[in-house]
Amino acid sequence: MRPSGRAADALRPVFIETGVTKHAEGSCLIRCGDTHVLCTASVEERVPPFLRNTGLGWVTAEYGMLPRATTTRNRREAQAGKQSGRTQEIQRLIGRSLRASVDRVALGERQITVDCDVIQADGGTRCASITGGWVALRLAVNTLLKAGEIKSDPLTDHVAAVSCGIVTGTPVLDLDYTEDSNAGTDANFVMTGSGGLVEIQGSAEGATFSRAEFDQLMNLAEIGVRDLVAAQKDAVE
């Protein structure tokens, strides 16, 4: 029995509330169990220098955790004067994941920055950020379409992410912090709504895991992403 009482293939309750900030072109608050992330998408009529005069747009992301998002207060990274390696790795993952759903020609020479701020953490913050980040991106693109700034929809598919792991010998979906901290194997799967793989991050803690076990995790991830995409659709339609 999982600590939460969930079945092995069950997500935590997922709620996505849109339009939660006044100024951003797209925003949502995503809650995956006790992990809560505020996602905002901001449109700028410029691109990084390496894309100037190419006609290509860009989607990037920034990620951060509020000081008391966890059980103990963490010092703000601004106070330390630099981002941690973990923060840099996660925000690059979010950016790569979201760009997998974007036709950058159709977007035009502009940048959309998706900010993911973790309000409360209970495992799976990067996955919640990707899933909620796509919703914010979708809403920002809708704003551009409505204003006539772009002529065709640059979003080609949904993108969502979920964690899976092997806990006390059992493959399970969507790990909370208690399970994540005790997992023998854990992995994050980023997938499109049509089932394409964007990225897989997986590692064993101590003992290795087999191909058969990986296939079990992959099957669970497909179930989870399907349900997350359904939640995204409910939020934006």
Automatic annotation (TrEMBL):
Pfam families: RNase_PH, RNase_PH_C. It is an enzyme of class 2 (transferase). One of its GO terms (biological process) is rRNA 3'-end processing. Phosphate binds at residues 86, 124-126. Keywords: Nucleotidyltransferase, RNA-binding, rRNA processing, Transferase, tRNA processing, tRNA-binding. InterPro entries: ExoRNase_PH_dom1, ExoRNase_PH_dom2, ExoRNase_PH_dom2_sf, PNPase/RNase_PH_dom_sf, Ribosomal_Su5_D2-typ_SF, RNase_PH, RNase_PH_bac-type, RNase_PH_CS. The keyword tRNA-binding applies. Residues 11-140, 159-222 form the Exoribonuclease phosphorolytic domain. Its EC number is 2.7.7.56. Homohexameric ring arranged as a trimer of dimers. Belongs to the RNase PH family. This is Ribonuclease PH. It comes from Pontivivens ytuae. The gene is rph.
